[in-house]
Amino acid sequence: MTVNLVVGILAISPPRRVTTGKAYNRPRQAELVELTLGDDSRTGFNVTLWMPPNMHVGWRDNADQNLNQTGARSNLRRAVKELRPRDIIMLQHVALSSYRGKVHGQSLKGDVTKIDLLYRKKVDEDDMQGCYTVSNLRNPTDPQLKKVKAVRDWMSEFVGDADGGRARAKKGKKMGRMMLPDDTQ
What pLDDT digit, counting tens, does each position of 69-78 carry? Predict the structure, then answer.
C-alpha cells in the first residue's frame, strides 16, 4: 500500500551504508536515511529512504547533463540533501508496513518516491523556500493548503524553533529558552 503524506520533519538521521546482497560477485550496497516525521495527528513516524550509491560516471550517456550542483543523479538523493528539520514536505508514493504493531514507511525502488518541499521558514534572503509562503497560508481554501497550515501550526506549537527555544506565547511574545536548574547540570 502506498500513500502520500504532508508532514513536518522532526529529525534526519545521517546516511548509513548497508549491503543488501551480491550482484555479479560484488556486494550490492545502498544508503539508508531515516526521517522522523510528524503532523497534527501523529508524532514520531519513521520513513526509511533507500538510495542507490552515488555514481559519478562522466563518459556515458551525457552524464554531465544529468548531474546538478549536488553531484547526484538520483532525484530522491538530491531532495534529501536539501532538507532540514522543521521543513514541511509532501512525500509521494511511500510504502507502509507494520512490525509488532508499529507502522513505518519506506521509499520505493528506482526513484519512484518523490519529496516536495512545501513550506520552510527562511533563515536569510538566500535561503530556499517551499512552494507556499506565509501569505498563502493565511486564508487557505485548498485542502492541501489547509493541511500544510495545520502542520505548520502544530510544529510551531509543539516542536519549537531551530535554536531550541519554545514556541511563541499566546500574546505574541517569544518565550525564553528552557533551562535546567543549576544543580541538575
Answer: 455 677 888 8
Residue 15 CB contacts under 8 Å (≥ 6 apart), including other chains? 31, 32, 33, 51
**102: its cell numbers:** 508499529
**pTM for the whole structure:** 0.74
Task: Work out the burial of residue 14: count CB atoms within 10 Å of its CB; fewer than 13 is exposed, 13-18 middle, 19 or more buried.
Answer: exposed
- Mapped onto helix, strand or coil, the DSSP state of residue 152 is helix
CA dihedral (105, 106, 112, 115) in degrees, to 10, reads: 60
The domains found in the chain, sorted by start residue, are 2-174 (2.40.50.140)
Element (H, E) at 45: strand 43-51
